[in-house]
Design brief:
By secondary structure, this protein is an all-beta fold. It is built from no helices and 22 strands.
Amino acid sequence: MALPSPKVLILEVYEVIMMYYDPDYKITRDPAVVKFKGEYFLYYTTMKDKEYLIGIAKSKDLINWYKIGELEATEEFEGKGICAPFASIDKDENIFLLYQTNYFSLEENIAYAFSSDGINFIKPKDINPVLRIQSGWSLPRAIDADLLEVKGKRFLYFATRLKDNPSEQVIGVALADDKDLFKFTVVDRPILKGEYEWEKNFVEAPSVCYKNGSFFMFYGGGTNPQYVGLAVSNDGLNWNKLYKDPFVKPNRIIKVNNFDWHQKDATHPFFFSDEDKAYIFFHSDYEHNVDWPRPSAITWVEIVWNNNELGLA
């Protein structure tokens, strides 16, 4: 039976809403947001002199952001570039990041760093990288990390490529050892693949939340353009897509400081909740007819829950 389409899509409208782009470099991608000591911290991929690094910005209202720092590759295990951060708060009230190393080598790993101020990070050498793929079904590649703990179990979601079809990108998951929270075992199969025409056998950037007994995964699907899909699971391992069409498929123009930003795509979603509101952060290109990586900026859409069904505010 065919899946339904989302009840609400973003229409083509003019809106004054958040647009953040790195003030030093044109590339501003792969957002991750966390609330820390009463303020919002944004971590994202950017690029300086053809080397990828993680930018850091801060806001008091989720709309007006200013850059406060950068996190560069400094360790041998990081290779020549780091990117695609995931951010959260640990039990000691530190910000911690999971991020991708060895950018674009097809042998990327996931590393861990933590910070007491959100700007200066420690990268423990004794546990890094925390996820190095050695499965039989995928390339030795793990990107786009997302970590979720539910009822004492830790799920580390990631994107990778199939060993027998390297052009196909899929989503996998690794589970933490009960005795060692940074020792992960990869589940022996992909948990999500592209199957619809818009996905183009290419899914990535999982962002997972848990609500009312169900896991919800927002993911990027397709290539040029990419949109955001939505899947649901009862156990975090076996997933079903909620819709046959994208959940977030922007075709809107945002006016920011006399700049018309025509959003034609929604790439690398990140779910963020703050008290009674929930958001999907993502990036979109703002120059479309240039070589990749194209100049890009970060924005969000607010989502609403209704008996475990989601819509866009």
